[in-house]
Design goal:
The complex is a heterodimer of chains A (112) and B (115). Chain A is mainly beta and 112 residues long. In chain A, the strands form two sheets. A five-stranded mixed beta sheet of chain A has the order 1-9-8-3-4, with no helix packed on it. Chain A has a four-stranded antiparallel beta sheet with strand order 2-7-6-5, with no helix packed on it. Chain A is globular and about 40 Å long. Chain B is mainly β. In chain B, strands 2, 4, 5, 6, 9, 10 and 11 form a seven-stranded mixed beta sheet that branches. Chain B has a four-stranded antiparallel beta sheet with strand order 1-3-8-7, with no helix packed on it. Chain B is globular and about 40 Å long. Chain B starts with a strand and ends with a strand. The relative contact order of chain B is 0.33. Classes of the chains: A mainly beta (112), B mainly beta (115). At the A-B interface, strand 4 of A face strand 4, strand 5, strand 9 and strand 10 of B.
Chain lengths: 112, 115
């Protein structure tokens, strides 16, 4: 799986959009970009994933650059409950068949 | 579905004692994973099963650790004897079939403290 690079921490004001960047410059053509988050004292939670096209679900939007070397997770209206560690993972599958390798992630702090 | 269920939620034991962590995956899921999380090493995959069969245990730190899955609805992770450096949060996760294995579903974890 390709290596990903994320900022260690970020702040965002409550009610604003939180934009979390991820670099994956060595990603291969058939590797997906997955995002999980881990709220304090809980297990990681799946957010969204994509291959080439932008994706949106009820939790977030995922914007992948055309060259696929980076992506941005967008939480459109951040709330205090979105404070968590967010993991960006490049992988050939969702890990459902062989697990996922989690890095350090970005600690997102939503400020009231 | 109640999700992945782990027990106990917290475990405090003394060095040298046997510790058994338990996991009930989501019904119908074919894959089960055990992870360990510490501040120093982050989330580490220890072992995973497919249809109750261990597939890869290369992440198991040493022989003191063992995992079993006697049936599709139950798995255990055992540490014998336990050591203070085993203190961590242990997560169990499950995922669906080979054709719907897009994501992992994690339990709430077991906080293990070995004194």
């Amino acid at each position: 799986d390709a290596k990903t690079t994320q900022p260690t921490s970020m702040d965002c004001a409550e009610g604003r959009a939180a934009n979390l960047p991820c670099n994956h410059s060595t990603i291969s053509g058939n590797e997906y970009v997955y995002w999980y988050r881990q709220i304090h004292s809980q297990g990681p939670q799946y957010i969204i994933h994509g291959l080439k096209n932008n994706e949106t679900n009820e939790m977030a939007s995922l914007i992948i650059t055309e060259d696929r070397k980076s992506s941005t997770l967008i939480l459109p209206h951040a709330t205090l409950r979105d404070t968590a560690v967010y993991y960006c993972i490049a992988a050939y599958s969702g890990g459902g068949a062989d697990g996922l390798t989690f890095g350090k992630g970005t600690h997102l702090i939503i400020q009231p | 579905d109640a999700g992945v269920i782990q027990s106990p939620r917290h475990e405090v034991t003394e060095m040298g004692q046997e510790v058994t962590l338990r996991c009930k995956p989501i019904s119908g899921h074919d894959y089960l994973f055990w992870y360990r999380q510490t501040m120093m090493r982050g989330l580490e995959l220890l072992i995973y099963f497919n249809n109750n069969v261990p597939i890869d245990d290369s992440g198991m730190p040493e022989d003191r650790f063992s995992a079993k899955m006697p049936n599709a609805s139950f798995s255990t992770l055992k540490i014998q004897p336990s050591e203070p450096r085993d203190s961590a949060v242990y997560f169990c996760a499950s995922s669906g079939t080979a054709f719907t294995n897009e994501k992992l579903f994690f339990g709430s974890g077991t906080q293990l403290s070995v004194l």
